């Protein structure tokens, strides 16, 4: 297996190494597999059980890409798996037996058939934050939000109680069709409080808006969105490597990163943005992040275009010291260039519904 992995790597390919029990997982880790697939199907009996992922996922070392494979049919299955910090899923039977494959993919990925321009392409994901009532949550969900955020940060005016959040989660889940991921926002609170709130409300993810460490994020019982605050003084390209390093620390550990404006003493919801050249520069390196801070109906379209356009233009015009590597025109170089010109996935986080009225 080691030899196969090395050969694949030398050909610039990645291997998905599949396991079904503890012993196979141990071997996969020992030989240095970076992408580990947990097969929920027992290949002797062909029965599937997502409990296999739930049992093995905590044994996968941090930093590996974890794929849960087989036996995945519904969005609830995905919700369950997201609590095991799965990075990706492999779906077969649910798609080949679906009468409308496109509709099934949309259902599983939580996209809406008639989604907005922003979410319709599947490239931009939208998070609506600071929701405080089931009615507002349902408006956001029906408008196509991908994530709905509820604030649990002490002393913030949009803070809601866990019981109120639980009702909001239930109301959204009762809606027909795919539902957004329900996210709880916290800042420098105890792990016990975060995990208890996740369990109590049935949250899909948490957004950590304080100075939480990578180790802290690893101990949270569900998917994590980590906010990385960007000082107003940051400029591209000078400050981008430093920012990219901070982002990578969390992203490499499986967090989705949100970039938001740094305002000392306030963890979010400031209504202020940062220099978008910095976000564009980070995006063109292939970073997958949510962009937050000062987004309004008046500026959001322009910001999306600006960040994407700047990101793409720079790939072509400027040599990027970060991407120094194989000599120009080598096969590896050409492959990298192709990869980098793929459109970037960029998410946007916006404040509660009042700004959208
Ligand atoms: O929004 C809040 O009230 C809030 C309180 C405490 C910590 C974080 C908070 N919000 C985080 C978000 O995701 C906001 O949407 C993000 O900071 C952007 O806010 P804004 O600039 O006001 O659009």
From TrEMBL:
Gene Ontology molecular function terms on file: indole-3-glycerol-phosphate synthase activity; phosphoribosylanthranilate isomerase activity
Known catalytic reactions: N-(5-phospho-beta-D-ribosyl)anthranilate = 1-(2-carboxyphenylamino)-1-deoxy-D-ribulose 5-phosphate; 1-(2-carboxyphenylamino)-1-deoxy-D-ribulose 5-phosphate + H(+) = (1S,2R)-1-C-(indol-3-yl)glycerol 3-phosphate + CO2 + H2O
Listed Basic residues bias regions: 335-345
Keywords recorded for this protein, A-Z: Amino-acid biosynthesis, Aromatic amino acid biosynthesis, Isomerase, Lyase, Multifunctional enzyme, Tryptophan biosynthesis
Similarity field: Belongs to the TrpF family.
Domain N-(5'phosphoribosyl) anthranilate isomerase (PRAI): 126-310
Superkingdom, natural source: Eukaryota
Region (Disordered): 318-357
Gene Ontology biological process terms from the UniProt entry: L-tryptophan biosynthetic process
Domain Indole-3-glycerol phosphate synthase span(s) in chain numbering: 1-108
Pathway entry: Amino-acid biosynthesis; L-tryptophan biosynthesis; L-tryptophan from chorismate: step 3/5; Amino-acid biosynthesis; L-tryptophan biosynthesis; L-tryptophan from chorismate: step 4/5
Name this polypeptide is given: Multifunctional tryptophan biosynthesis protein
PANTHER family: N-(5'-PHOSPHORIBOSYL)ANTHRANILATE ISOMERASE
Keyword Lyase: yes
């Amino acid at each position: 297996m080691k030899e196969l992995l090395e050969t694949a790597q030398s050909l610039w390919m990645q291997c998905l190494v599949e396991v079904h029990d503890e012993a196979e997982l141990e071997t996969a880790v020992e030989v240095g597999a970076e992408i580990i697939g947990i097969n929920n199907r027992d290949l002797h009996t062909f029965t599937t059980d997502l409990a296999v992922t739930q049992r093995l996922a905590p044994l996968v070392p941090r930093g590996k890409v974890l794929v849960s494979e087989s036996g995945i049919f519904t969005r609830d299955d995905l919700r369950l798996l997201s609590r095991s910090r799965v990075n990706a899923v492999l779906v077969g039977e649910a798609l080949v037996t679906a009468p409308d494959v496109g509709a099934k993919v949309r259902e599983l990925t939580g996209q809406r058939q008639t989604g907005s321009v922003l979410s319709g392409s599947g490239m931009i994901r939208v998070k609506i934050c600071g929701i405080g009532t089931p009615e507002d949550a349902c408006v956001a969900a029906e408008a196509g939000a991908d994530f709905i955020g509820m604030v649990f940060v002490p002393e913030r005016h949009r803070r809601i109680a866990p019981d109120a959040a639980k009702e909001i989660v239930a109301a959204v889940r009762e809606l027909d069709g795919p539902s957004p991921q329900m996210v709880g926002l916290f800042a420098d609170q105890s792990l016990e409080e975060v995990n208890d709130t996740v369990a109590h409300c049935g949250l899909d993810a948490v957004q950590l808006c304080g100075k939480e460490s990578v180790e802290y994020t690893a101990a949270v019982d569900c998917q994590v969105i980590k906010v990385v605050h960007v000082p107003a003084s940051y400029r591209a390209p000078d400050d981008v490597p430093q920012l990219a390093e901070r982002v990578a620390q969390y992203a490499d550990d499986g967090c989705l990163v949100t970039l938001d404006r740094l305002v000392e003493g306030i963890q979010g919801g400031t209504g202020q943005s940062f220099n978008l050249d910095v976000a564009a520069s980070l995006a063109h390196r292939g970073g997958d992040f949510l962009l937050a801070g000062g987004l309004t109906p008046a500026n959001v379209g322009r910001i999306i275009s600006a960040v994407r356009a700047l990101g793409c233009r720079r790939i072509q015009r400027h040599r990027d010291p970060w991407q120094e590597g194989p000599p120009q025109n080598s096969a590896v170089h050409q492959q990298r260039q192709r990869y980098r010109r793929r459109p970037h996935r960029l998410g946007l986080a916006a404040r509660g519904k009042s700004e959208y009225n």
